[in-house]
Design a protein that fits this description.
Blueprint (H helix, E strand, L loop, with lengths): L10 H4 L4 H4 L7 H24 L3 H15 L2 H4 L10 H32 L10 H19 L12 H38 L1
Helix pairs in contact: 3-4, 3-6, 4-6, 4-7, 6-8, 7-8
């Protein structure tokens, strides 16, 4: 599940081990599974935040998307989200951290895109392109559909699909505006050069 094109600078993150590889496949209680899921989340959050600090948002999204895919699949099957009042505070902590990280990445994408639009400049290569945003939206919708019947979408304990997709939609609109402006500028430049040539 990669959002990037296959470029040399992408290999560091595209080939990193996902949570499934780090998950110990031994029999555990739901509490033990949850503790391990939280431990892995902490590692992924640190890496994602470090990437955000240098505006490598594609890498940050890929890390968190890999974790979300795993935690709503293999980890859920191991009882991480089993209905248990004793586990509830830690389950809530997991979702809060995961959602806030996703929101922070998306908000950073929006902030950079707005600044880029204002400066009439090209978007930073570390940011999500239009096609990458569209791919991310589709992935998040599919993952949300997977857990919706378990009551894990847009509730206190669950993935904040609506809020996150709303920011991504704003990012998409801004990116489309940047693209339109660049095409318009290119067209104007070409027309000017043709006119100069004719004169």
């Amino acid at each position: 599940m990669h959002l990037r094109p296959t470029e040399i600078e992408d290999l560091e993150y595209a080939n990193c081990a996902g949570p499934a590889q780090e998950w110990e496949q031994t029999h555990k209680t739901p509490a033990e599974s949850l503790d391990q899921a939280l431990g892995l989340l902490q590692q992924y959050l640190k890496e994602a935040i470090d990437l955000c600090r240098v505006d490598q948002l594609v890498g940050a999204v890929e890390l968190m998307l890999a974790y979300l895919d795993w935690v709503t699949g293999d980890a859920k099957d191991c009882g991480v989200f089993i209905d248990n009042p004793v586990l509830y505070p830690r389950q809530l902590l997991l979702w809060n951290k995961l959602n806030i990280c996703f929101l922070a990445i998306c908000q950073r994408q929006k902030d950079i895109t707005e600044a880029t639009l204002k400066a009439n400049a090209p978007l930073s290569p570390g940011c999500l392109s239009i096609s990458q945003i569209e791919t991310l939206v589709n992935e998040l919708i599919c993952l949300s559909d997977r857990i919706e019947d378990d009551g894990l979408v847009d509730y206190e304990m669950g993935f904040w699909e609506e809020e996150i997709l709303s920011i991504l939609d704003q990012c998409l609109s801004l990116s489309n505006t940047i693209n339109s402006n660049q095409l318009q500028n290119a067209s104007s430049t070409a027309a000017y050069l043709v006119a100069q040539r004719l004169w």
